[in-house]
Amino acid sequence: MVEGSDSKYVYNFSEGNSGMKALLGGKGANLAQMTVNGIPVPPGFTITTSACLQYLRSGPEFLEGIWHDVLSAVRSMENETGKIFGGEDNPLLVSVRSGAPVSMPGMMDTILNLGLNKITVEIMARISGDRRFAFDSYRRFIQMYSNVVMGIDSEVFESALKKVRQKENVNYDHEISATALEVLVSEFLEIYRSRTYTDFPEDPWIQLKSATEAVFDSWNNQRAKTYRKIHSIPDDLGTAVNVVAMVFGNSSNTSGTGVCFTRNPATGSKDLYGEFLVNAQGEDVVAGIRTPMDISRLKEIFPKIYKELFKICYSLESFYRDMQDIEFTIENGRLYILQTRTGKRSAAAAVRIGVEMVSEGLIDHRIAVSRVTPRQVELLLHDQFDPDADVSILASGLPASPGAAVGQVVFDPDVAVHMKEEGISVILARPETTPDDVHGLYAAEGVVTSRGGMTSHAAVVARGLGKPCVSGCEELDVDLENEVIRVGNTTITKGEILSIDGSTGKIVLGEVPLVKASISPEFETFLQWCDEIAVLEVWANSDTPDDAVRAKDFGAKGIGLCRTEHMFMAVDRLPVMQEMIISDNPDDRRAKLDKLQAMQKEDFKSIFKAMDGLPVIIRLLDPPLHEFLPKEEELMRYLDDLEESGFRNSLEDEKVHKAIEMVRSLREANPMMGFRGCRLGIIHPEIYQMQIRAIFQALVEVKKKGIDAAPEIMVPLVSVIEELLSIKEMIKQIASDFQKLSGLELYYKTGTMIELPRAACVADELAEETEFFSFGTNDLTQTTLGISRDDAEAKFLLKYVKKGIMKENPFNSIDRKGVGFLMSLAVRKGRKVKPDMSIGICGEHGGDPDSIAFCHSLGLNYVSCSPYRVPVARISAAHAQLGLIK
Amino acid sequence: MVEGSDSKYVYNFSEGNSGMKALLGGKGANLAQMTVNGIPVPPGFTITTSACLQYLRSGPEFLEGIWHDVLSAVRSMENETGKIFGGEDNPLLVSVRSGAPVSMPGMMDTILNLGLNKITVEIMARISGDRRFAFDSYRRFIQMYSNVVMGIDSEVFESALKKVRQKENVNYDHEISATALEVLVSEFLEIYRSRTYTDFPEDPWIQLKSATEAVFDSWNNQRAKTYRKIHSIPDDLGTAVNVVAMVFGNSSNTSGTGVCFTRNPATGSKDLYGEFLVNAQGEDVVAGIRTPMDISRLKEIFPKIYKELFKICYSLESFYRDMQDIEFTIENGRLYILQTRTGKRSAAAAVRIGVEMVSEGLIDHRIAVSRVTPRQVELLLHDQFDPDADVSILASGLPASPGAAVGQVVFDPDVAVHMKEEGISVILARPETTPDDVHGLYAAEGVVTSRGGMTSHAAVVARGLGKPCVSGCEELDVDLENEVIRVGNTTITKGEILSIDGSTGKIVLGEVPLVKASISPEFETFLQWCDEIAVLEVWANSDTPDDAVRAKDFGAKGIGLCRTEHMFMAVDRLPVMQEMIISDNPDDRRAKLDKLQAMQKEDFKSIFKAMDGLPVIIRLLDPPLHEFLPKEEELMRYLDDLEESGFRNSLEDEKVHKAIEMVRSLREANPMMGFRGCRLGIIHPEIYQMQIRAIFQALVEVKKKGIDAAPEIMVPLVSVIEELLSIKEMIKQIASDFQKLSGLELYYKTGTMIELPRAACVADELAEETEFFSFGTNDLTQTTLGISRDDAEAKFLLKYVKKGIMKENPFNSIDRKGVGFLMSLAVRKGRKVKPDMSIGICGEHGGDPDSIAFCHSLGLNYVSCSPYRVPVARISAAHAQLGLIK
What we know:
Two copies of one chain form a homodimer.
Chain A: E1 10-12, H1 21-36, E2 44-47, H2 49-58, H3 60-81, E3 84-85, E4 91-92, E5 94-99, E6 110-114, H4 118-128, H5 131-148, H6 154-168, H7 178-196, H8 204-218, H9 222-230, E7 240-245, E8 256-261, E9 273-278, H10 282-287, E10 293-294, H11 295-301, H12 303-320, E11 324-331, E12 334-342, H13 347-359, H14 365-370, H15 374-380, E13 384-385, E14 393-396, E15 398-401, E16 404-410, H16 413-421, E17 426-430, H17 438-443, E18 446-449, H18 457-465, E19 469-471, E20 477-479, E21 484-487, E22 490-493, E23 497-501, E24 506-509, E25 514-515, H19 521-533, E26 537-541, H20 545-553, E27 559-563, H21 574-582, H22 586-611, E28 615-619, H23 632-645, H24 650-666, H25 678-683, H26 685-704, E29 710-715, H27 721-742, E30 749-754, H28 757-761, H29 763-769, E31 772-775, H30 777-785, H31 789-803, H32 816-833, E32 838-841, H33 849-858, E33 862-865, H34 870-881
Parallel strand pairs in A: 3-4, 16-17, 17-18, 18-19, 26-27, 26-33, 27-28, 28-29, 29-30, 30-31, 31-32, 32-33
Antiparallel strand pairs in A: 1-2, 2-7, 5-6, 5-7, 8-9, 8-11, 9-10, 11-12, 13-25, 14-24, 15-19, 16-23, 20-21, 21-22, 23-24
C-alpha cells in the first residue's frame, strides 16, 4: 500500500524527501528534504510507517527482523558525527520522536538524550565540563523514558523533584545543585525499579528498541484511536519513528540556540525575525530565565553563522513557498537546523505575506487566498484591546459581537442617545435588550448584557450594527432601578468608564487602549482575489441607507435583505407606527399610513441610489404588530406617572386605555409562530399596500433621475401558495398602477422567503409563482427543530452543546441534517421547476463560514449577511470553492 | 365514447335500464329500469347525453335533425295514454327534466305542465271540472318556462302574485280565486312579452324544443361549470332530458299522492313508512294546508292500490338492494310510481338497515359498512337536542365537541367541582379555558367559551373527555368578575339553566329535552365488521385508568398515548408536583418525586390491568414545567388576600416569593418551542427517572399477579438522535435494575414521537434506535406551518379558511402537502431501516376521517384518538380500506 513497504523499512535522512510523508511521516519527510537540500540537519534516520503497521500486525519479532537496518542507520550517524552510540569515549545521544503522516496529538511524543546511562553520563559530564548539565539531562531522560515507554506517572518524579527543591530551599529546577541532581537520579532509578520490578535499562540499544516499540504501540492507544475517529483519519496510516543525533547549544560560548521566522509574523514584512541565546538550550528560552537577543544581533556576534542561517531560511521559504518558522542550534560554531515548519502569523501578516508572495511569483492567487482563514479576516475588521496593555478583567461573558469599545456606562437607551448627541461615548448595560432598546444600541459604542446568549437580541442587533457586544455575563448584576452594576464586591455606577471586548467576552473597569481595525490596500486586493475564485456571491442585509453604503463599501454585490420594519423603529417613526396600529378610525389610519409611506419612500430612494443598479431585496413587514407597541406594564406605569405628576386627564386616559386594549388583543402565546409576516399582509392589506406603494414611488422617482434600480419584493412567512398569490396580486396591481401613472417600464421581481418547513415541502409550487427564493434560516431553524431562539440558549441549548447532545448551536451554524435537508429539498424542488431560479440565504447563518460552505455545496447563488461580515463571507465563499471548508 | 352514441339519440323508457346512466342520466336510467321491471311509471322518454354533447358542438341544427325521433317518442306516449300532445280533446301534458350521469345541482331542473296554452287550459278546466286548478297549473308553467328557458327573474312573477293576494285580501296562493288567476295568467303573459319582445309560445312542440335546448345549454352555464371543476366532474359527460307524461293526483276522489320509504328512516325497522293525501298534488303536501295520512291508512281506503304499492316498494328495494324513497301518484284509481331513489336515513336507522339487510342476504358486510358514514356514527355516540323540541336559540358558536348537555351555568371551575359533588349538573362558561380550569371541565356537563376555535384548549380537552363544548361564541360576553353572561339585551346570571349542543354549536336558555345516545347490539356487530375490513388499527389516547376502561369498551386495540402529565393535573396531585418543581432542596425534591412516583405507579397498574396485555404507549413528561405552576398574578393576588385577611406571615411569604421567582425563571417567549419534552428529561433527569421507575414498578407488580402488560415508553419532542440515546440509556438502566431486583423478564419497547420537522428528516437515524414511531401531528402541524394553535384561530386562521387561503383548518384535518409530506418522508426513511416498524399517530387528527384515510394511505399501523372517537375512527379505517374516503 505504501511505497517501498515490501522491503525497505529504515531510511537515512539523505534517502527521503518531503513527498514521502505517507511512508516517513511529516516530520521525517521534512528532515529528509532538508538533508537532501544540503541544509545542515543533525544526522538521523526514520523507521517507516509501514514498519509500524507490520509491527502492529506481527509483534516484536518483526522489529527483531529489521533491527540490522536500524543498526546500520545508527552506524551512518556514528560515521557522520564521529560519536559512538553507547560509546565510552564520545557517546552519541539521540532523540526519538514519533511522526505520523498527519499531525496527530494523543500519541507518544518525544524522548530526548536517549543513550545516557550510568557510564555515559559521566563521560558527558567530563566532555561538557558541566556535571550539573549532564545529570540534569540524565534525570530528564529517565523521567521521559519512564513515562513514555513504561507508562509511569510523571507526577511521582515531579514530587521527588519538588522535595529536592524544598530541601535545597530553591524555587527553580535550574537552581538545584549538581550533587542534589545526582542523588535525584538515584531516586529516579529507584522509582523506576519499584514500579517496574526491573532495573532501568543501561544498554542504549535496548533503550532505543523499547522507545521504538513504544512509539509504534502508541498508534493504537485509546487517545490516538479516539482522535482518529473524530477527525476521520484512517487507522491504517501508522506512524514513523525519527531518531536524530542530539546537538547541544549549551556546549560552549560558540554555541547557542534560537528560533526565527522568514517574515515578520505580526506585520508580514519580509525581514528575518526571531531571537536567540548564546550558550543555551531551547529550554532556557522557555523557562524565561535569560532574556533572548533579537536575531539581528546574531549578525554582529556570529556573522558567518548569520549569513548561513539567512541563506538557509530563504532557501527553505522558497522551497516550501511559505513563511517558515525555523529552530536552530549552534554547537561549537556549527549551525544545525532542527526543524522547519509553516510559521503562524497574525491576520494582517497573513494577508500581506500572501499578497507579497504572489507579486514575488512564489505562489498564485488561489494559494494566497487559501492561507488566510475567515476567522483571521474577522479580526482584521474590528478594534481590539491592545495586546500589550496591562488589564485586569472585571468579568467575562459571551463574545457575542466582535470588536472592542470604551465608554461611560449607562443603563437607559434614551440617556445613551442623549449623551451620544453630546459627543460622549457610552457603553449600554442592560440585563437583556428588547426591540424597545434599539435606539440605545445605535447610540452606544458597545453593549453588555447579563442574560442571553450568542444569538440573543442584543447579540444579533449588535452584530448587525457592527458594534461590540458581550452578552450573558452572569457575574454582573445589572440593576436598572438604581443604575448600578454589581460584580462581587464592586459596584459600578452610571458614568464610570468600562472597556469591553466582544471578540473575547472580556469586560474591564477603566479605559483599555485599543488597536484600531485597519483595512490595508493589500486586503482590498486579497478580497478581490476571493471574489474571482468564489462561485457564491456575497450580498448584505441592510435596512437603512447608511447600511447600504457600508454594504457596498465592504464589497456586497447586492442587498439580500432589507427589513422594512427596522425603518419603523427609529425614534421619529415609531410613534407614527404606533398611532397607526392603535387607530380605529379608517381616515386617521390612512393619514398615518401616508406619513409612513413618505418616510419609507425616501429610505428606498436612498438605498436604490447607494446600490446603483445592484439588486435590492425588500422584505415586506415581518414582525407581529405588538413588537411596535410598548408593554402593558409600561403603559400602566405611564398612567401612574401622570397621576402622580397631576397631569392625568380623560383625553390622555382614553388614548392610553385604547393602547392597552390593543396590546392585550395582540398578545400571543407563541408570537414567533403567530400573527406576522404575510399573514398580516393578508388580514390587514393596507400595511403591505403602503409598503409596496412606497417601493414603486421610490423606483419611479429615481428612474426619472436616470438612476437604475432593481427592487425585488420578498414575501415573508409563506407556507401555502395561496398566501403568495394573494400578495403577488397586490404587488402586480400596484406596479401596474404606477406603470400607467408614470409611463415608465418598471422592472421588479417577486420572491418568497423559505423560512417554514412547509415552504420547503412545496417549493415546487412556490417556484411556479416567484422569481427568487431566500432562505430565512433563523426561523427555519426555530421551526424545524421546534426551538425558540429567545428562550432556548439559557434554558437548555448551551447545556446541550456542553453535554454533546448537539455538536454546535444550530443558530450559529446551519444544522445540516435537519434544516440543511429541507434547504436541499427546496433547492431541488425549486430548480426542477425553474432551473435558473436565483436562490440565496439571508439568515444570520449567511455570515458563518461553515454555513457558507454548505450554501456553496447546495448551489445557492448568494449569501446575504450583515455588512460587517461581508469580507468574512467573501473569503469563506472562496474557501468553499477551494474545498477548504466543506 | 357513449354506448349507441352514433345513431340512437332518443330512448323510450322501455328501451333502457339502470346500467345506462352514462347515456340516459341517473333519472332516465332509473325510470327506464322501473318501466322494464313492469312498474307502472307514466310513459315517457329520454333524449340522451350524447345528443346533448352533439347539440353543444353543432348547435340547434343537430336537434332539428333528430326531431323526428322525438316526434315518434311523443307518439308512443300518446298511444299509451290515449291523450294527444297539443290535442284539443284530451291534451297530453308533460314534464321536462334534466338528468346528468352524476347528481349535479346548478343545472336547469324542472318544467311541469308543458303543453298548456290558451286552448288546452280551457280543455283542462273542462275535463277536470276545476277551473282554478287549470289556471293555477298554467300560471306555474308560464313562470317556470319564463324563468328556466328565457332567464326571466322569478321575482317579477312573484311580485305580481303578491299584488293579487293583497287585492283579494288572502294570505295563501291556494286561496286566490279562479277569476283572479285568469287575470294573473294574462298579466304573466304580458310580463313575458315585455321582457322577450315575443309572445309566449302557444305551440307545445315549440315549448318542448325550447325546453330541451335550455336543458342542454344549462350544462355549460357558469354555475354548472364551477360545480364540475370543484368536484372534479368531467366536462364531457353531458346531460340527458327526460320527458314524462303528467299525471294528476287531484283529478278525483279516487286519486291521491304520497311518499313512502321501504324501511323506517328514523329507526330502521322494516315497515312501509310514509304518508299520503287523497285528491291532492305533491305541492299540497309541501304547502302544509292539509295534514297527510299515515301510509297504513291507504290499506283501508284503497286496499288494492296499497297491495300493489307494497309489492312494488319491496321489489324496488330488492332490485336496488337498498332502502328506497318512493314518490307515487294515484290518478283516477290508477297507481303511478314517479320516482324511486335511495332513502335518506338517521344514523341509527343506517346501522340497523345495514345489519338487517346482511342477515336478509340482500347485501354483504362491505356494502353495509360502506353505507354508514363516519359522521353518522359520531351522532350515534352523543346525546342530541330532541329534534321535536321547540327551542329558541340564544346564540351560536363553533361545534367544538359533539353532544348536548343541560345544566346550571357557573363561571368558576372550583364552584363547578363543588356543585358536581352536591349532585348538581353544571355548564361551565369561560371567555376561554386554560390548563388551570381542567378540574372544572371534568366536573361540568359541558362547556361554553366566547373565544377560541375548534382546536382551542376548551375544545381539545372537552373532546378528550367526551363532553359537549361550544367554543368561540363571540356573541357572548362572559364576565367572570360579575359572574354573568351578556347576550344582546339578555343577562344570564349564575345558576340559570343553559342547554348546549356541541354538535351544532347551539346555545339555548332553559332546559331542552335530550335524546340519549344509544349503542345498540346492531352497532356492535357493525363496528366488528368495520374492524374485519380495516387494515389500520384504532387505538385510544387515554391518560387515566377510567379512560383506559372506556377505550377498551369502545373497541380500542391499544393505548396509543398515555400523557403522564395529565396524571399530575388532578386536584390532589398538582400541589405535590408544584412543590417538587419549586423545591431547591435535593432531599425535599426527592421526597416529592417519591410521592409522585407512588401515584403514577398505581395509575399505571390500573391501566395495565384494564388493557390486559394490549399495548400501552406511555409518553414521558411533555409540557414545560411552568404549565404546572400558578400564574404570577395569581400568586400576587394570593399574597394580597393573605394581607387583607390578616394571615400574612414571613414563612408563607418566603414560600410564595420562591414560587414567584421560579415562575419568572421558567417564563418563555414561545413556550411551544421551549423547555419541554425530552429537553426537560435531559436537563432534569430526576423527573424522567421517577416516571420510568413508576412504569417498571407497576409492570413488576402486575406481572406478579399474573397480568400481562406491554408498556411502550415514548420519548417526546426528539429532534436529534443524541436526545433519544440519552433517554434510552436511562430507560435501559432502570429496566435492568428492576429486572435484576425482581428476577422477572420484563418486556418493553422504546419509541419516539415524530412531532418536529427535523425528526421526520432524520427518521432513518431514529429508526435505528427505536421500536416504534408515533406522529404527534398537533405539534408537527404547528412547527411545519409555523402556526401557534393557541393564537392562530382567532387572529387569522378562521379568516384564512373563509378567504380560501387554506381549504381547511390544518389542526382539524392533516395538511397533506406539508405535514403529510413530512409524515410520508418519515415513514419511508423509518421503514427503509426497519421494514416492520410499528408507526402510528396520536395527534388530534387520529379521530378525523380524512386524516385517517391519509394515514391508511401512508401504511401506518394504527391511529390513536380520544376514546369517544374510537367508533368513528373504526368506521373511517374501514371506509379508507374500501376507498370511500381518500
